[in-house]
Design brief:
Blueprint (H helix, E strand, L loop, with lengths): L1 H10 L1 H4 L10 E4 L7 E5 L12 H12 L2 E4 L13 H6 L4 E9 L5 E9 L4 E10 L4 H17 L8 E8 L2 E8 L6 E6 L3 E6 L5 E6 L6 E6 L5 E5 L5 E6 L5 E6 L6 E6 L6 E2 L7 E6 L5 E6 L6 E6 L6 E2 L7 E6 L5 E8 L2 E8 L4 E4 L7 E5 L5 E8 L2 E8 L5 E5 L5 E6 L5
Parallel strand pairs: 2-3, 2-4
Antiparallel strand pairs: 1-29, 4-5, 5-6, 7-8, 7-30, 8-9, 10-11, 11-12, 12-13, 14-15, 15-16, 16-17, 18-19, 19-20, 20-21, 22-23, 23-24, 24-25, 26-27, 27-28, 28-29
Length: 424
């Protein structure tokens, strides 16, 4: 009974909770703030009213959502080349101010200019100019937010990254990608059959996922630039839970081709399939550690599902989780120091994080139907699927639990998020 329950949770759990989802961008609901926020003013960029998007508003939203900043009112327009009265902004409580300009060029592109000024010292901390196509203006604004976040916190910003997730609209299932704030969604693939388990390639150019279009779970890899896709795994039985190796040359997955579901390794072109586990239980949900030499996975070999780790060749298998009788969906932080997972305790499925150096746990979610955690590429936030007011939503929480917000739709459910990597 436990084995069938575990397998069902891996392959079709998210499908059971789907309801209608209209095509709409995600709505951000911030319900927490961080400690020690940096006060910052973000002035309206000169000439941005003629652009399809407001860079200053996007930057403001990014920084506010991060929980690391407290926004100081700056209603006036200030261009990047305008003189900055640092003492004046310091007196208003701002430690830094952001100014800029948007120039529409003759070729239809936009030139985005930005400057970050330290009001405490009256010095420039950063500035740059970029030229973008109109459809990439939001990306340019996210890049500026990344730069501000890094210059003021010392941590790389993850605003100019993308997320992938599964939606269902009537009888149509979609794998979508969007900006990290849920805006500008694009359907990668559509199917009348279920889609589950999206997984980003390390370079952000491809997605592996599971489709039931052949009336069974089959793993595909799809290139995002041209929609070309290949069948990666269509073996007898179930093909599920694809996970890319850090070098992008191979993937781990769960296959039942030889009977019980076990972990296998396969080259990214579908060749050289190699079995890694040989247990009497169900082994599934593999995830690589950043070193590429260690794999974490879920197994019920000791009874209830728990998280284990092993070497790349399948040796030295060790149990990692011991608190609670049901722990699934392991995800490793980019620095390899933390493990995020879903644990069922007192009837609730909630997000936990473990410090792998000392096995200390911290519960990060406050809801009771959580699944599919995914680290931001800077390792400071985790996105996961949850349920709010009876509908699915994507939630984000900082790894210290102090900052949290939801990306939700008023009209339906979204499931199985995965946060994409840093890209150029």
């Amino acid at each position: 009974m436990m084995k069938s329950c575990l397998l069902r949770s891996v392959t079709v759990l998210s499908l059971l909770s789907f309801s209608l989802f209209a095509q709409a961008q995600l709505r951000i609901e911030i319900s927490g703030v961080g400690a020690n926020q940096i006060p910052i003013a973000i002035a309206k960029f000169a000439d941005e009213d003629g652009a399809p998007h407001s860079p200053s508003n996007i930057i403001r939203s990014d920084l506010e959502r991060s929980g690391a900043f407290r926004l100081i009112d700056a209603p006036e327009v200030i261009a990047d080349n305008a003189p900055i009265q640092a003492a004046n902004w310091k007196s208003k409580g701002a430690d830094a101010i952001v100014v800029g300009r948007v120039n529409k060029l003759a070729n239809g592109r936009f030139e985005l200019r930005y400057r970050l000024v330290d009001t405490l010292r009256g010095t420039e901390l950063s500035s740059f100019v970029m030229t973008v196509q109109p459809q990439f203006l939001r990306f340019g604004a996210h890049k500026i937010a990344n730069d501000i976040f890094y210059k003021l916190t010392g941590i790389p910003g993850a605003f100019a990254t993308r997320i992938a997730y599964i939606v269902k609209a009537g009888t149509e299932n979609r794998l979508e990608i969007a900006d990290s704030d849920g805006e500008s969604p694009i359907a990668v693939t559509r199917s009348s059959e279920p889609l589950i388990s999206p997984s980003w390639s390390p370079d952000g150019t491809k997605l592996a996922y599971v489709s039931f279009e052949r009336k069974k779970p089959v793993i595909f890899i799809q290139e995002l630039a041209n929609s070309k896709r290949i069948v990666l795994a269509d073996f007898k039985g179930s093909n599920s839970a694809p996970a890319w190796a850090p070098d992008g040359k191979s993937l781990a997955m769960a296959l039942s081709r030889d009977g019980q579901t076990q972990i296998y390794l396969i080259e990214a072109d579908g060749s050289h399939v190699r079995r890694l586990t040989n247990s009497s239980g169900i082994d599934t949900e593999p995830r690589f550690a950043p070193d590429g030499q260690t794999i974490y996975f879920t197994s019920d070999r000791n009874g209830g599902p728990q998280i284990f780790r092993m070497n790349l060749d399948g040796s030295d298998v060790k149990r990692v989780t011991f608190s609670g009788s049901y722990n699934i969906s392991p995800r490793i932080s980019p620095d390899g120091k933390m493990l995020a997972y879903i644990s069922r305790r007192e009837g609730k499925f909630q997000l936990y994080i473990m410090d792998l150096t000392n096995s200390q746990e911290l519960r990060l979610s406050e809801t009771g139907h959580d699944e599919s955690p995914s680290f931001a590429p800077n390792g400071k936030y985790i996105m996961y699927a949850t349920s709010t007011a009876g509908r699915g939503a994507l939630a984000v929480v900082s790894t210290d639990g102090r900052v949290r917000y939801n990306l939700s739709s008023k009209v339906g459910n979204i499931r199985e998020p995965t946060w994409g990597p840093f890209t150029n």
